[in-house]
Design brief:
mainly alpha, 8 helices, about 65% helix
């Protein structure tokens, strides 16, 4: 059976949703009772950014907002702050997706890294303004660096395992609109 463009979009959305919920589930599992020595990269942010930069139609803004709001509630972060910052970043990437499509991976990586650094700084500043307890700056910087460094790996895995590729220049959706 031939896969229609609408079916491809819905398959991409379902894969994105399942992957995001699986990562949240793995973060919540008590696999080790000792505290982490190194913070892990923010994989939920990475898949949201990769899906939005590569195929914006696979990651609708409402789903990203609901997903990150749920993550804020489950991870006991201030509700809506990180979710709002991630929505701003993904919408910025969505708006520039046609320009990102023509960039080499290294330039896309720098563009996304600047966005991730900006929302991380905004998050820390917002928490400092309202005097909320935060993780030490060194751990935040390590997590930020690891998140940025693993971006090309996630892009490669998304391409190979899930078929999340940049649309070709003449590609259209099921209604005939250019992607």
């Amino acid at each position: 059976m031939a896969e229609t463009p609408t079916m491809q979009v819905w398959t991409g959305r379902i894969v994105f949703a399942c992957l995001a919920f699986a990562i949240i589930f793995l973060y919540l599992l008590p696999l080790d009772t000792r505290p982490d020595v190194w913070p892990v990269p923010d994989f939920i942010l990475l898949i949201a950014v990769v899906w939005t930069a590569r195929r914006p139609d696979y990651a609708p803004v409402t789903f990203i907002a609901i997903l990150f709001l749920l993550a804020d509630l489950l991870f006991q972060r201030p509700p809506g702050l990180w979710a709002g910052l991630v929505v701003i970043l993904t919408e910025m990437l969505r708006r520039r997706s046609k320009q990102i499509r023509n960039m080499p991976l290294m330039l896309e990586w720098v563009f996304v890294a600047v966005g991730i650094v900006a929302i991380t700084l905004a998050y820390r500043i917002a928490l400092a303004i309202v005097v909320m307890p935060q993780a030490p700056l060194s751990l935040t910087i390590i997590q930020l660096i690891m998140t940025v460094l693993i971006y090309p790996v996630i892009v490669g895995l998304a391409h190979v395992l899930f078929g999340v590729t940049r649309p070709s220049p003449g590609q259209t959706d099921s209604l005939g609109h250019r992607l």
